[in-house]
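Form 12-C: Joint structure prediction
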Amino acid sequence: MIEQLDYKTLQHLWWLICSVVGALFLFLTFVQGGQSLLWQVAKTPTEKDLIINSLGRKWEMTFTTLVLFGGALFASFPKFYSTSFGGAYWVWILILFTFIVQAVSYEFRKKPWNIYGSLVYEGLLFINGVVGVLLIGAAVGTFYTGSNFQLDASNFVTWTSPLRGLEAALSPSVSSIFNIAMGLFLVFNSRTLGAMYLINNLELGEIPEMETRLRKACWQNLILSLPFCLLIVASLLFMRGYGIVDAQGTIEIVSFKYLRNLLANPWMLGLLLAGLGLLIYGVWKTAKTTETCGIWYGGLGTVLVGLTVLMLPAYNNTAFYPSKVDLQSSLTIYNASSSPYTLKVMTYVALGIPFVLAYVAYVWWAMNRTKIKIEDTGDRAAY
Amino acid sequence: MIENLDLGMVNWARAQFALTAMYHWIFVPLTLGITWIIAFYHSIYVKTGNEEWKRLTKFWMKLFGVNFAIGVATGIIMEFEFGTNWSNYSWMVGDIFGAPLAIEGIFAFFLEATFFAVMFFGWNRVSKGFHLFSTWMVAVGSNLSAVWILVANAWMQHPVGQAFNPDTARFEMQNFAEVAFSPYAINKFTHATSSSMLMAAFFVISISSWYLLRGRHIVMAKRSIVVAATLGLLASVFTIFNGDESAYEIAQVQPMKLAAFEGLYEGQTNAGLVAIGLINRDKKVYDQQEPFIGFNVHIPGLLSLMANRSFGSFVPGMKDLVYGNAEHNILGAVQKMERGKKAVASLDAYKQAKKADDKAAADVHLASFNEYKEFLGYGYLNKPEEAVPPVALSFNAFHVMVILGSLFPLIFLGYLYFSYKGNLAEKKWLLGLGTITYLLGIMASQAGWIVAEVGRQPWSIQDLLPTTIARTNLTASTVQTTFFMFLALFTLLLIAEISIMVKQINIGPEEN
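Section 2 - Result
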C-alpha cells in the first residue's frame, strides 16, 4: 500500500507524523513544567526530593521525544533542518544548552561530591523548564510570523539578522509579541501539566500542604496561560499568512490565511476546540476536585492543541517556514521534503511506531501504578 | 556563497564538532559495554538468587547511571550540530543521512529511555523477570543506537546507495539496503561495539583492582573481574580481527586515509607496516624530506597484506594519490580535480539553461555533468595537496590505537589466569596496571576516532562533499564563541562527573 502513495500524500503524511511527535513532546513538557514549579510548590528538602524523583523517571522520555522530533524533521524535511538550525543559530544553541544541563542535573543533584551543590542543579532544571520551553515556543511562533532568511540557488541559507533567530523574540515588532506569547503559553501550560502529573504520580497523603500547593499552582498557571492563549487564537483568526498561490509554488502574502485554513479544514478547528476543552476540564478536575486523573485530560488536550498548532501553518497550501525577507525562499512541505524514495522508506519504518508506543504505554503503566512515596527518595539509586 | 568561503569558520566548526564528539565518546563506549556486563550480573542474580550478585549489579548500575546522564547530554548536541554548523551538509545529504538518525530515535532511543527507568527503579515495582528483561533492553537499545549512528557515519566514509540529483542539487537515496547493510557500516559497528565492550571491562577491572589493592569489597571485586575479564578478552580479540577488516575496507574505499595513517608517501609493493616510528611533521607530499625522523621499524609485507590480502601487492602512497601513477593505473587528485571542475561547470551551465528554459542546452550540460559527476567533490578543491589529511595526527593516533589494542588481550589473559589460580589479590603489579587500564582504553578509543575522522579529511562525504562546502554560513567568531561555551560547559560537567564517580567508588557497594 505504501508503494502506491504519491509524493504529495507522503509529504502530508510525514508532516503529520512530525506534528504528532511534536505534539507528544508538548505533552511531555510536564517534566519541564514540574521543574519550574519546584521552588514554588516544594518547601522542604523531602518535598523537593519527591518531585525530582517523580520527574526524574520521565525526563528521558521528553528528551528522547525532542531528539526524535529533530531526527524525523531531518529525515523528512531536511531543508527545514538546514535552514532553521543553521540560520536561527543562537536560538537552537541556547535550547541545546538548556537541555544539556537538564540531562545531568537529575543524576548529579543529590550525589555527594557533586562540586556545585544541589541548588545549582535545581537552578539548571529551572532554566531548562522556563528558558528551554520559552525558546521552543518562540521558534514554533515563527512558523506563523516568518523568519529572516534567504536561500540561494543551491538552497544554502543566509540569515539576514545578526541576532540569528533571537530577533524572533527580541525585535520590536508585532511578530515578536506573537512569538513570545506562544513561548509563554507553552511555559505556563507545561507548569499546568507538571502540577497535574505530580498530583497523579506522588503519594501526598503525608504532605497534604504540598497537594494543596500543587492544585493551586495548576489553576494559577491555567489562568496565567489564558491571556496568551487568547492572544494567539485571536491573532490566528486575523493574521495574514504565507500561501502557495500557483502550481509553480509561488508564495504570496494571503490575508486571513490561517482562518482560511481552519475553515478549509474544519476538523482542525474541532481538534483545537476539543484540545482546549480537555485541557480546561483536566485543570478543573485537578484544581477544583480531589481527583488525580486530570493529567490525562490535560495531556490529551495538549496533544490536540499541539497538533493543530503544527499542522495549521503547513497544510492547505501554506508555507510552514516563511521567509519575511524573500517570500520565494519560504519552505513548504512540498519544497522542503526528502525524495519520494526516502519518504517511502521512512513510512515503512514508521509502521514500527505503534509498537514503540505500546511498550512505552505498558512500561509507563507498570512503573506508575504505584505512586512515588517518601521512602522511595531514600534509596541510594534515587535522584 | 562558496566564493566567500571563511576557512576560519570551517576550522572552528571542525574543532567544535571534534570537541563534542570526543567528549561524547568518553562516555558512550562505557554505556555500550557496561550495559551488557550489568545484564550478565543481573542475570546471575536472578538465576542464583544470591544477594551478593544483586549488590554487585546495583553498584555497577549506579556508576553507569552517572556516566549515562553526561553521555546523553553530550549526545544531543551531535545531532543538532549537523544543522547548526553544517547546514549545507544537512541539506545536501539529509535525504540519506537523516533516515538512520530518525530510525535511531524511533527504535533505539525509546527502547533505552523507556527501560532505563525500570532498570534503575524497578526493583520493587515490577516482577523480577520483567526487571531483568528491562536491563537487557537497555543494553539492546544502547547498542541499537550505535548501529544506526554508525550506519550514518559509515555512509559518510563510503557513500553507497545514493545519486546526485542535479535538479535539487542534493544527494538522494536510491537504495536503503545498500546504506544500512554496507560492509563498511558492519565493520564500523562491530569494531566500535567490541572495543566499547573491552573499555567497559577495563572500567570494571580498574575499579575492582583498586578495591583489591585496598583490601575492600574483595568478593564483589573478584566476581566482577571474572565476568569482565572473560567478556573483555573475547571483545579484545574480536576487536583486533574486525579492526583488520576495517583496515582492508579503508584500503579499498579510502586509500588516502590508509596512506596517511601509515605515513606512506611513496607507493610500494610488498609494503611494510610501521611497528614504531617518529613521523616527520614538517614533510609535505610535494617535497623530498624523509617521512620519518631517525629510527623506525617496518614489518615487511604486512601493510600489503592488510590492504589487499596479498603480501606482494602494491599499496598506493600519498604522492600516487595526489599526482597519479600511470604504471599502477591510479588517478591522482590532480586528474580528479580537472574532471571535478568540469562537473561543477556543467552543473552550473545546466542550471542556467534550465532557468532560461533552453532544454537542448540543458540536456547537453546534463550529459557532460553525468560524465564527470563521480568527481564532483574534487571540483571544489583549490589544489590537489588539499586531498591529503593531517598526516602526523592520523599516523600517531593509528599507532597509539594499534599498540594499545595489541596489549589489551594480554592484560585480560593475565587477570583470568591469576583469577583461575586463585592468587590474583597477591599480584600487586597486575592490579596496579589494572587500575589504569580504563584510561588506556579511553586513549585507544579516542585515537580510533581521530583516525576515522581526521583521516578522511578534507571530505565530509568521501570524494563527493568537502568539509569546506558542508558548513553553515556563519562567522568564525560566532562558532568560536560557541566552541568555548561548549568547552567550558563540558569541562565543568566532566569535573563534577569525575568527582561524583570517585566518591561513589570510594563509598563502594551497598552493604548487606
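Section 3 - Comments
Chain B touches chain A through 84 residues (CB under 8 Å). Residues 121 and 183 of chain B are 39 Å apart (CA to CA).
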